[in-house]
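agent> fetching stored inputs for the iron/sulfur cluster docking request
agent> found them:
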Amino acid sequence: MTATFVGMPAFPGAARTALADTQLRQNLAHATGTIRTKRARVVGEVEEWEELRLAGAAIKDNTLHHLDEHLLRLEESLTELGATVHWARDAEEACRIVAEVARGHGVDEVVKVKSMATQEIGLNEHLAEEGILAWETDLAELIVQLGDDLPSHILVPAIHRNRAEIREIFRREMGKVGRPAPEDLTDVPAELAGAARLHLREKFLRAKVGVSGANFAVADTGTLVVVESEGNGRMCLTLPEVLVSVVGVEKVVPTWGDLDVFLQLLPRSSTGERMNPYTSTWAGISPGDGPQEVHVVLLDNGRTKALADTVGRQALRCIRCSACLNVCPVYERTGGHAYGSVYPGPIGAILNPLLKGVGHDDQVDSLPYASSLCGACFEVCPVRIDIPEVLVHLRSQVVDTHRGHKPPKPEAVAMRTAAWTLGDARRLGLAERASGLVGRLTRRGRALPGGRRALGRLPWPGSLWSDARDLPQPPTESFRAWWKRTSGGRG
Amino acid sequence: MVTCVNDAMYPETGKAVVTLLRRLGVEVDFPEAQTCCGQPMVNTGYLDEAVPLVRNFVNTFDGYDAVVTPSGSCAGSVRHQHSLVARRAGDRALEEAVARTSPCSYELSEFLVDVLGVEDVGAYFPHKVTYHPTCHSLRMLGVGDRPLRLLQAVRGLKLVDLPKAEECCGFGGTFALKNAETSVAMGSDKARHVRESGAEVLVAGDNSCLTQIGGLLSRQRAGVRVMHLAEVLAATEGSTGHSAGHPVDAAEVGA
Ligand code: SF4
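agent> prediction call returned; pasting tokens
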């Protein structure tokens, strides 16, 4: 995969392109609508859902509070069980570690279980530069990889594609990198899955090194957990001789018992299933069974920076279920690519700025504004991340980094002027008298339903509104003026 | 609190609140020092700029039994954001004042149902109406079905379902300008659902959202009117003028 998010335009520009793609909007509305309904149904079945959410949030918060202790405990458990633990400060260190392991075994290919952490660090691209091919084995990831495309969803990275497009990609690309798709392949889902299965099987059987992430890492028992639906994960985790897992430091939970909460929250929130089809767990090395060399790369890459942010740190509770994407009205219309990151949607709008920091990249700084603050994400988040709160907090960070800049941004001038006008009732009254004058002078606009007239087209930035939406003319008398004139409505 | 948007752009909503509350026996005052709750600044990230507005709010309203506002998002801002702004200002006295004013601030439907304990406010509005639950009233304040209960008790009113009612209209304050295309895409779907509902009037508890949806409906010549909940609840059989289903140009009322 050579596609990369590097150099993406800021959100409003990227969204504009996406919004114009009618096929994309159809695909997304259909897919998110379906999964939303499924989720709502299975979540509705659980009477104590709110208690589960609270428990999930509390376990994560407590763990993050003593993250250092839990990570050291995890390292200790893993080492005892024969795994090698590596610590990676950033993406580059993590990629180097994985590449060294692969090179150490003289391989030129690895098989991968779908993993957000390895995408975050750009592992496939890094390995490719070293001449090592990384094969994605999750069906949707395979579609993205074969199509030289970018993921647009955390769980269903090819959600922006429909069946017909997938068939095309399989027929065109599979043969170039392995077993070709059958000549007579149709767009029936079972046939598409069958073609992927045959294509992938030879890669599973050949690969010596497997690469994964982990949904959870249990400190006490040194157990890593991967939750998946297709069985490709189980193959990657058991067939190769060597297994390298890249795990974000926030994935640690203290005890085996904590999984009880998360294994209920995750499948219902993500795929809308009561239970996911495959849950694989492994603790270090089991002699004679599965990989006999196990590496775990514990990844920071901005997580400790996020942890230092007292409001933003709640984002580290995230279990990557993608429920927030599926309910987000912005995501539903723009799709994931507009966010310019492997983490799209509401969680991406907060996680990217938190991991990368604000104030040095316009694309990152545009993300906290990619929301109407409707709050649907917070409502569904299984670990109760108050995404709107974090968005507003990050917006203030973006604004603060620009304070004192000369010349100030037009928006800053507008906000300061508005705050000044609104800071005092007399000043506001004067402004209303002025707008009332506009209302009196421009009485020619088209009548709106209800009798008031519409203003015409406005100059920029008002045109941002009036290009597509009417605005009523200002009334000739404000409420304040009416109250005064009529002595509180009694005159 | 009438709110700055209603004061400047939708005075009829403010008048309707006064009419309605007085009809229900409430002593109503409009302290003239009031301006804006500061929400536009906070939500755009300008916290420092919001400090004087929060200060003005508590100076204006500290001491009243209840602050009633015909806006879910302004009530939400007062209840959930003012403490944040006061903390940022590092002013203990302001924080304490906010702790007094925030809890007694109510969105209109909350005040009617929870504080006054009424659902039938004696209104008459013989029209086919659908209701859009605005995001902040729904998810930030949790007003639940209070507005619907109030509407159901209005004589003559026929309430019809709005498809995908709980989906955001795409207004979002400065979002409507910063991400105008996305905002319009969201609003257009909402407007389509309003048309599908078959209602002649769309009612909501927030004029900002109604500006968005109404602005799209009227650009589409959809022939559907938007109206604030307060104006519907203020309407009575005998009343003419602004709120009895005979809307007139505000200019004529005020001139
Ligand atoms: S933020 Fe919450 S809803 Fe979104 S992916 Fe993470 S856990 Fe799921």
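agent> quick read of the result: The longest helix of chain A spans residues 22-44.
agent> awaiting further instructions
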